[in-house]
Design a protein that fits this description.
Helices cover 38% and strands 22% of the residues. The chain is α/β, with parallel strands linked by helices and 432 residues long. Helix 2 (50-58) packs parallel to helix 7. 36% of the residues are buried.
Length: 432
């Protein structure tokens, strides 16, 4: 058959239950399945990040994922994945395909599979009118389609986009929840909308006390070994970890959320900071970009960027921070050093006189204008790039970084390294 549902390569997510003494005997045990839609995932364009977020978020509530699969953006493929998943669990969570474009087919597939029709929702429509400041009669048809919700079930509000989450409640007791694909929409929706629904609908417990520690510059195995040696986990602490783009997150969860539980996690945090603090950039949900931007903002310092090899990924990452408008004073992106130097107004004579890539990176860093900190990333040459850091006072540091290819994952890894180096340099320059 032509389906491209990756049944053969299912990403089976088997999470161990909390120890028996970690929750009351009456605590409900709810199993669920995940269906991730997106042909780009099957083509290897980027990895699935939704599964780890959902399992990590829902497991402390007593919800246990038994399977996760990726389905192509085809109605028949999505329906096949739904058929398989619903045969295993009474709760199925689907991500992606709720947008306004023609290849956003999840809404149609769910309607056909569940037999539950969609109908325009007056409250959602009113919210869309307000968001776009446009009368409903003038809303584009593809946008207005996103105001339709199941006639049997409910919906989840989206504070960060136009696609609301959809809840289909089938007559046989199966519940199918559809979430938007973009992480900036999906993750807040899960925390603010889906969790209260699951607690009410399935009797899931409220989240216990938790601690998130975000690492940089170390691998998962090295972190685990250090924790085992210097900060061993009590038996009732559930531990989750994820790795992406050179960053590692560890989450520690207790079954209950009392003052004593929070104190235990605070003590644990201090032990972890004592042995791995140099490689920790946050003990909450703060991203590396947000952390670096906040460091600069607190010091009243600014940053300018010029990128060839990283294709603007560093600027895009920094622009996502709430401190970006106060910190980022300029960002230049071009596909080659030659084009980048023209944006920075490096003269022909200066450029010709610089015979090495390191020398040219230095020239461009000097032309970044008024800023406290500057980063120039040259174009990829063989298997690396020249990077110039401009420090407060104008001092320059030039180095070569390994970089093979220019794909999204490679750029993400280099972006992480650059942000980590900037973090360390800012901290060293401030003397703390």
């Amino acid at each position: 058959m032509a389906w491209r549902v990756c049944f053969a390569a299912l990403v089976w997510v088997i999470l161990n239950a909390l120890p028996a003494h970690a929750a009351p005997a009456t605590q409900p045990h709810v199993e669920y399945s995940i269906v991730i839609t997106g042909s780009e995932l099957l083509e290897g364009a980027y990895p699935d990040g939704h599964t780890i977020f959902l399992t990590r978020t829902l497991h402390p509530l007593g919800l246990h994922c038994i399977s996760s699969m990726i389905a192509d953006d085809r109605i028949d493929a999505i329906k096949a994945a739904l058929q398989f998943s619903s045969s295993k669990t009474k709760l199925v969570i689907v991500t992606g395909g709720l947008g306004p474009t023609d290849n956003d087919l999840t809404r149609q597939a769910l309607t056909q599979f569940t037999g539950i029709a969609l109908k325009e929702n007056a409250d959602v429509l009113a919210e869309m009118e307000k968001r776009f400041r446009t009368p409903r009669q003038q809303l584009r048809a593809n946008l207005r389609r996103q105001t339709e919700t199941p006639t049997r079930g409910s919906y989840l509000k989206n504070a960060n986009g136009t696609a609301v989450g959809l809840i289909f409640e089938m007559e046989n007791g199966t519940v199918v929840v559809a979430l938007p694909g973009p992480p900036r929409e999906l993750q807040p929706m899960v925390r603010d909308e889906l969790l209260p629904y699951l607690i009410k609908r399935f009797g899931a417990r409220k989240p216990g006390a938790s601690l998130t520690v975000r690492f940089i510059g170390l691998g998962q195995s090295q972190i685990s070994q250090t924790l085992n040696e210097k900060a061993p986990m009590p038996p009732d602490v559930a531990l989750f970890s994820q790795f992406e783009g050179g960053r590692v997150d560890f989450m520690f969860v207790l079954p209950e959320d009392t003052a004593a539980d929070r104190k235990r996690l605070e003590d644990l945090k201090q032990k972890i900071l004592a042995c791995l603090g140099d490689n920790i950039y946050a003990t909450d949900d703060t991203s590396l970009e947000e952390h670096v931007a906040k460091m600069l903002a607190e010091r009243g310092q600014t940053l300018a960027l010029a990128e060839a090899g990283t294709g603007g990924s560093l600027a895009a990452a920094m622009n996502g921070s709430p401190h970006a408008s106060n910190v980022l004073v300029g960002a230049y992106t071009a596909p080659t050093d030659e084009k980048l130097r023209r944006l920075l107004h490096v003269s022909d004579d200066q450029w010709s006189a610089a015979t090495t890539r390191a020398g040219r990176a230095k020239l461009m860093a000097e032309k970044l204008g008024e800023c406290d900190w500057g980063i120039v990333v040259g174009e990829v040459d063989r298997d690396g790039v020249e990077v110039a850091f401009r420090l407060p006072g104008g001092r320059l540091e030039i180095q070569r970084m390994a970089m093979r290819g220019g794909g999204e994952l490679v750029r993400a890894g280099v972006t992480t390294q650059l942000l980590d180096q900037l973090r360390r340099k800012v901290r060293a320059q401030a003397g703390n």
